[in-house]
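#onboarding

Welcome to the new folks! Below is a worked example of what a typical request in this channel looks like: someone posts a single protein sequence, and someone else replies with the predicted structure as tokens. Don't worry about understanding the tokens yet, we'll cover that in week two.

Example request:
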Amino acid sequence: MTKIVFLTTNILPCIITFSYGFDLTSKSIVGCKLRQVLLFALSTITFTCTCLATIDHFFVICSNPSLHRMSSITEVYKIGTIINTIWFIHANSLLSLGYFASFQCICAPITTGTAIYVALFFIIVFSFIPITIIFRYLTCRNISETRAHVEQ
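Example response:
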């Protein structure tokens, strides 16, 4: 669900802007800030949930009983709720940052501090990708080891 909302609120306006030359976010402060909040919140929730799902899959497949017990559906709901709340609070804190130059009709960071913060933020978010790759590799390795034990 998060991915669908992310695509409709962020990709669709870009397609309309490049296809028809009409940029709604440059016309209103509310449209600009709402799009930025949704971009930050939904992209981080998507990356985090993908990473957590991969880690949980590793725990389910793992032959170590202590790691296997760490996979619990009740814990997943708690962790998901906490992380979603944190990301939405973080995204709403962006409303206070300077993100709209009304005299230029541009929806972009207007201070260098905000621009540096946004760049560093997305570097941190994209650091979830290597974590996901590592746990995916470990999961595949556990599956192949399990198959080897079964075939013996």
